[in-house]
Amino acid sequence: MEKPKSHTQYQSAFTIVELLVVIVVIGILAAITLISYAGIQKKAVTASLIFDLDNASKLLSMDQVLNSTYPATLSEANGGKGIPASSGTEYNYFPTATGFCITATKSSSSYRITNNNMPRPGVCSGLERDKLSIIKWGSWTLGASGVSGYSANGDGNSRITDINPWGMSDIIWDVSNQDVTSNADGGWDGSSFSIDNTKMYRFSTFVRRKTIGNGYFYLGTHGYPDAVLYRSSGTSDSNPYFFAISSYWGDVNQWYLVVGHVWPAGSGTGATMADSGTYTMSGTKVASSSDFVWQPTTTSSNHRSFLYYSTDVTTNQ
Predict the structure, then answer these.
(1) How many CB atoms within 10 Å of residue 180?
(2) Domain span including residue 76
(3) Which of 66, 107, 257, 307 is most solvent-facing, going by the fewest CB within 10 Å?
(4) Is the Cα torsion angle 95, 100, 104, 110 positive or negative in sign?
(5) Each residue's pLDDT tens digit, 169-199
């Protein structure tokens, strides 16, 4: 007769807990692998875009040396051979009066280069720079006083050809040669536009001072027929400014982006939207802004930005 097996002769098996631990460990290792791969892939895309833009810049500069001008299109560049690109890279090219800006895009990442500068994240402003904006500045023309959609505010207004925040030649609203009186010195009051008071709206402008001088910089709005409310307190403000400062915060001849938001009606009070504030062109936030809230009866708004109370005739904004 066969003897019964002793307890020690049975093979041990994994418990449910042990199996779950193994599965969790494998999952963590897989996640780490995926994250590491994604990071490596992103770095590879960035390196590829920078390489393509550096090469494109050199070839376009060679065209300028040989022909005394930059090509009108990329197909005409490099002696008619075009600009080579790494697999998957797409170019968007904008020649200007003083050079060029070219955007390289791959796998949802974009870098740009202006003239012979270093490649930077982002895209060129391009010819459709105001495509997504409710208010348009493509109608700006050279000259003084106001222009369609923008009523001049003060006595120092003109629109000149200058370099925009992306390093491209463009029409810039210039405030200079204002009088010494402490009053409105230049900028615009924008025409009103309809709003959906159930949505949040972003208001922004770029500002630069070539000569800091003195005077207030303003970025503001209005609410019609009923005024907007302060986001911080819920009180009404018929003369609202996202940013109003008497002492200019920035460095001379540097562009800054100033941003404020108007929140949906009924959203209550609280902190400003995280993106509200003043930024350098590299994305560093250097100052805070105020936010506002639409009223349920507010149906239109406007955009306004100007220099005010400058008594220094050399101030240039």
Answers:
(1) 10
(2) 29-121
(3) 66
(4) negative
(5) 788 999 999 999 999 999 999 999 999 999 9
d(CA 35, CA 46): 17
284 and 157 assigned to the same domain? yes
Same domain, 77 and 160: no
In this structure, the answer to whether residues 189 and 225 fall within a common structural domain is: yes
Q: Residue 302, Cα to own-chain centre: how many angstroms?
A: 20
Burial class (CB in 10 A: 0-12, 13-18, 19+), 316: buried
Location of structure tokens 């972003």: 202
Please write the tens of the pLDDT for every residue from 21-56: 667 777 777 776 666 666 778 888 889 999 999 999
Q: What contacts 207, CB < 8 A, 6 or more positions away?
A: 217, 250, 255, 256, 258, 305, 317
Dist CA 6 CA 261 (whole Å):
78
- The count of domains in the chain is 2
Amino acid at 20: L
The one-letter code for the residue type at 98 is T
Instruction: State the virtual CA torsion across 27, 31, 33, 38 in degrees, nearest 10.
Output: 160
Residues of the chain above pLDDT 70, percent: 87
82 with 157, same domain? no
Strand extents, DSSP E, the chain: 90-95, 100-106, 109-114, 120-121, 143-144, 150-154, 157-163, 169-175, 184-190, 193-194, 201-207, 216-224, 228-230, 236-237, 241-245, 256-263, 277-280, 285-287, 292-293, 300-308
